[in-house]
Specification:
Structural class: alpha+beta
Distance between the termini: 32 Å
Shape: globular
Order of helices and strands: HHHHHEEEEEEEEEEEEHEEHHH
Number of helices: 9
Radius of gyration: 20 Å
Strand content: 15-25%
Strand order of the largest sheet: 1-2-3-13-6-11
Length: 350
């Protein structure tokens, strides 16, 4: 069963989708098995990229959505994700510059972020931006397979994004992605809420907990300043703090506004881990829309060059980060992982 908000419900499985799911699952399982048995000749990241290319040349359809969910389900177990990271580390050392395998590893290295809202986000495999492999004329054809470790990080913005009426909870501002994506909970559990714009203009509309009641939010372009787009709006919750547990997967479309909670006590010791696969963007600027409370927006306006203080991880730091996460996935606690592996500031492109 796929756990997801109702608005992102997939249609019932068809014979065609069953074929795509089986082909996707079998191809991925074979990649892991071949790497473990014939490592010297294996090019696992290149082969994962080939599976992604097959999916992104499919027309936008329930079958493609099912295949994307199958991909995150297959890779998104603690053992397989740990193995995938070991494959990245191995290919980084064994393959020279100029090979497809090295190119894909280096491409993944360049996409690594730490959000001030509480998670480390790193790439597993990315496709290229091109015209030949996009579907339905989408303006941004790059697909991404990535993972997140939702460990709270120290941030000056924490107090501005703490959820109302809840203690020890950190949350990203509600946001809407410019691409559809499939995600799976690899480890731990999380809570997610879904919102809708209050089209009737009822400024008092809110859940029973009065979240955002009477608060005029501002819809902005991107997670970091400066923000060119600013639209005042109000949100009403439709799915309140739905719990997603280890092994659950879900699919969100571009019209869904959602947020993810981070438990400031539990996730410090045992952060939840997710795998995400997103398809092409339906917007030229590819910016995620965030709905910010006045206090957070003011901090952004007061610090318009936040991104300039970030830096990219060196190759050695990237390797150390992946090695630490592998240990966490295998041993089940953070004792073997330096916290700096998960909290190094990095350049984020939004």
């Amino acid at each position: 069963m796929i756990r997801r908000p109702p608005r992102s419900t997939l249609s019932s499985s068809s014979a065609a989708s069953d074929v795509y799911k089986r082909q996707t699952r079998d191809a991925l399982v074979q990649i892991f098995e071949d790497w473990q048995q014939f490592r010297e000749d294996a090019t696992p990241i290149t082969r994962v990229r080939a599976v992604m290319d097959r999916l992104r040349t499919m027309p936008q359809s329930p079958e493609r959505r099912q295949a994307m969910v199958t991909m995150v389900r297959t890779i998104g177990t603690p053992d397989r994700l740990a193995c995938y990271l070991e494959m990245q580390l191995d290919s980084d050392l064994r393959y020279p510059e100029g090979t497809d395998e090295k190119y894909l590893v280096e491409k993944a290295k360049r996409y690594k972020t730490v959000s001030a809202f509480g998670h480390c986000h790193m790439a597993l495999c990315k496709t290229d931006k091109d015209e030949r492999a996009g579907t339905l004329g989408a303006p941004h054809h790059e697909w991404s397979l990535a993972f997140s470790v939702w460990k709270p990080v120290s941030s000056s913005f924490v107090e501005s994004v703490t959820k109302r009426h809840l203690d020890n909870v950190l949350i990203e501002p509600p946001h809407k992605h410019p691409y559809e994506f499939a995600s799976k909970i690899v480890k731990g559990s999380m809570r997610q809420s879904v919102y809708t714009l209050d089209s009737d203009g009822d400024k008092q509309a809110a859940s029973s907990e009065e979240r955002y009641k009477g608060v005029a939010l501002t819809c902005v372009d991107g997670a970091w300043p400066p923000h060119e787009k600013r639209e005042e709006c109000w949100l009403r919750v439709t799915e309140d703090r739905v719990e997603l547990k280890e092994g659950d997967a879900y699919y969100l479309t571009t019209d869904v506004i959602h947020d993810v909670e981070i438990d400031l006590e539990k996730d410090v010791v045992s952060p939840h881990v997710t795998v995400i696969m997103h398809c092409e963007s339906d917007k030229p600027n590819r910016s995620t829309e965030f709905f910010m409370e006045p206090a957070l927006l003011k901090k952004h306006d007061d610090n318009p060059k936040i991104k300039d203080t970030f830096h990219r991880l060196s190759s050695d730091a990237w390797r150390s980060c992946l090695e630490g996460i592998v240990k966490y996935l295998k041993c089940g606690n953070l004792e073997a992982v330096s916290y700096t592996h998960l909290t190094l500031p990095t350049k984020r492109i939004v």
